[in-house]
Amino acid sequence: MFIDGLSVPARSGRRMTVTDPTTGQAFETVPLGGSEDADAAIVSAMRTFEGWKRVPMTERARLQKACAQAMRENAESIGAVLQRELGRPLAGCVSEIARSADLLDIYAEEGLRLRAAMPLGSAPGERIVITRDPVGVVVAITPFNYPITLLMFKLGAALIAGCPVVAKPSEETPLSTLMLARLFHDTGLPAGLFNVVTGDRALGEALVAHPVPRKVAFTGSVPAGKAIAAACAGTMKRVTLELGGHSAAIVCADADLDRAAAAITRHGFANSGQFCYRVNRVYIERPVYDAMLERLAAGAKALTLAPAGGQGDLGPLVNDRIFANSESQIADARAKGARILTGGTRATGPGYDAGCYLPPTLIAEATPEMLIMQDETFGPVIGLAPVDSPAEALRLTNESRFGLAGFVFTRDLATGLALCEGIEAGSVWLNDIRRSSHHVPFGGMKESGLGREKGRYGVESYLEYKTMYLSWEEAL
User: Fold this and answer.
1) In a domain, 223, yes or no
2) CATH code of the domain in which 221 resides
3) Which of 40, 104, 231, 287 has the greatest number of beta carbons closer than 10 A?
4) How would you write the pLDDT of the chain (476 residues) with one tens digit per residue?
């Protein structure tokens, strides 16, 4: 682990394995931390907090920008480690490092734009100052799918706000986070400002239950997020929770079908479907249903799997548990009468047998009772359903406990705006799908989470308002 500027073992001496998803073989071990390790990391962070919160914003921004540049300069080496533990093709891993560095820069710039306020309505001999204080030590718990990006969502905002971070990466992808902590320390971050502890769920529970941290920032599943929120209530910790998604796309009869199919295919199958705001289900108006299916199938079939040691567009799913969810949703759809348009069965053969490879899968004639239209998949599977009107599509989109993202395709601007405003989700795209911007808020409604990350909105979530009433005897 990385605590107080040093690489340290777990107090228990125990370790856990890290597996290459393309081969199924363990290739490294990391410490299996427990409550004593959680305490050591938090105590280190608390010591550092006393000094870091007094560091001028300009110096915090300078250090953060230096760390961002160090990420760019080491993107290939960090990306190679990430590729080994995640299984995603190398180009995507290197791109993740570079894009995450951009977010660090943006957070640094947002920090420089923070302001205090002095209202003019004070009484004679009094001034009121409204300022912002850092919340304190932050626990950041991140998943495997975009481990560096989702860590930067939290770390970049916390550091510039004046908060030290204790990070617990996913058990599947701890190595890239550990590498990053060492890199940032060597770049100049003070010891204890960014600690990394590795372990399983028990370690996460110890971090959340600890009385010192004042905030927990978590990206992961809905059940885990609910458990964290309940545990944080005991000590009134703040929470930012970016949880599951089951995002729907609506394709109207007048849409540019080629553009819609390209966007849905690109977004729905990126990272083998292993991210929260991907297209999970699509509602298509009947007059263009068959034509849209034809285009989507052509796009899905054009994507290639990257075998162990080989090249391709998509890697394997990270482990058997994640694969099993896709498998069960496909089986459920088959049993309930759906048509498997593409994919649907595990890829086998040389280079594939040892990994959880699933070709891009499209499920046509999906109906509301099917799991694919109800629950997050986190795999390369998309449900497709015909609808009779945009209003029906909107109703079905919102009949979900999730509300992370939505997507609309129509040439009619009035219809598009009405659908975008009507979708109950934190982010909505019209007529294209691109990655979420670093400058604007990102997060979900309903069971997709609490709070927002990115841009000034992310920084503000690590600050407390403080009102100071300053009085003196009038001199004149």
Assistant:
1) yes
2) 3.40.605.10
3) 104
4) 999 999 999 999 999 999 999 999 999 999 999 999 999 999 999 999 999 999 999 999 999 999 999 999 999 999 999 999 999 999 999 999 999 999 999 999 999 999 999 999 888 889 999 999 999 999 999 999 999 999 999 999 999 999 999 999 999 999 999 999 999 999 999 999 999 999 999 999 999 999 999 999 999 999 999 999 999 999 999 999 999 999 999 999 999 999 999 999 999 999 999 999 999 999 999 999 999 999 999 999 999 999 999 999 999 999 999 999 999 999 999 999 999 999 999 999 999 999 999 999 999 999 999 999 999 999 999 999 999 999 999 999 999 999 999 999 999 999 999 999 999 999 999 999 999 999 999 999 999 999 999 999 999 999 999 999 999 887 66
398 and 297 share one domain: yes
Same domain, 275 and 381: yes
Tokens of 370: 């099917």
CATH number at residue 324: 3.40.309.10
pTM more than 0.70: yes
**Three-class DSSP labels, 84-150:** HHHCCCHHHHHHHHHHHHHHHHHHHHHHHCCCCECCCCCCCCEEEEEEEEECCCEEEECCCCCHHHH
> Who's near 324: CB < 8 A, 6+ residues apart?
none
440 is a domain residue: no
Token readout for 342 is 């593409």
Query: Which residue among 67, 93, 276, 356 is the active-site one?
Result: 276
Which amino acid is present at 43? V
**Encoded tokens for 118:** 């002095």
Q: Is residue 232 part of a domain?
A: yes
Domain count, the chain: 2
Of 440, 472, 312, 310, nearest in space to 380 by CA? 312
Q: What is the largest CA-CA distance in the chain?
A: 89
Residue 253: give the domain boundaries. Answer: 247-430
Query: How open is the CA angle 448-449-450, to the nearest 5 degrees?
Result: 155
**276 a catalytic residue:** yes
C-alpha 314/C-alpha 246 separation (Å) is: 21
In the set 171, 172, 242, 285, the catalytic residue is: 242
Active site residue 110: no
